[in-house]
Specification:
- By secondary structure, this protein is of the alpha+beta class.
- The protein folds into 2 domains: 1-30; 38-172, Double Stranded RNA Binding Domain (2-Layer Sandwich), CATH 3.30.160.150.
- The protein has helices at 7-26, 40-45, 55-69, 141-172, and strands at residues 47-49, 80-96, 101-117, 123-136.
- β1, α3 (55-69) and β2 form a beta-alpha-beta unit.
- The chain is flat and about 80 Å long.
């Protein structure tokens, strides 16, 4: 009797569970998080980026050009166009109570982007990303200006990496 001692049901349940797990795993794709699919590097290298209006937007643009081309510079034959609008906000967080002067703050760099295929005008990806960099405001004025600039540069670099990941994801699906 196969079912009288319970071993037959147990084997059937194990076999069914094994087949179900294989079915679920067969639909999965395992790929490193920050990798790009095959052929995406060439697509990224053919993305032209809009001209910048200020220093921080230029910094984001330069980082994106470097990340898209792998250090090869701007593309001469663009298949895609990335429209980029960057905004910077300085937010004082910690005020000195005696002097009412900010001693620490946040630099928030945000960007709206729109990736368009140049020949058809079809929008492939669009979105808004932002990054935050913390900054300490020293007493000396030049040191304060330099600290703010360094924080803007750090935030611009992080923002470019986020946008690159979004664009690579959009181009990898095509």
């Amino acid at each position: 009797m196969l079912l009288s001692d319970g071993t037959g049901l147990s084997r059937f349940a194990k076999a069914f569970a094994g087949i179900a797990i294989l079915g679920v795993v067969a639909g999965c794709q395992v790929r490193p998080l920050y990798s790009t699919p095959a052929g995406t590097e060439g697509k990224l290298a053919s993305v032209a980026i809009s001209k910048a209006d200020d220093r921080v937007e230029q910094r984001v643009r330069n980082e994106l050009i470097f990340l898209f081309s792998g250090g090869g510079g701007e593309t001469q034959s663009a298949l895609y166009h990335l429209e980029l609008n960057v905004a910077v906000r300085k937010v004082g967080v910690l005020l000195d109570v005696r002097d009412d002067i900010p001693r620490a703050g946040r630099i928030v760099v945000s960007a709206d982007y729109n990736l368009v295929q140049t020949d058809s005008g079809e929008t492939l990806a669009s979105g808004k990303r932002s990054t935050v960099a913390l900054v300490d405001y020293p007493v000396q004025e030049f040191a304060k200006l330099r600290a703010v600039r360094d924080a803007e540069d750090r935030a611009a670099r992080e923002l470019a990496e986020l946008i690159r990941a979004d664009v690579a994801s959009a181009l990898g699906r095509r």
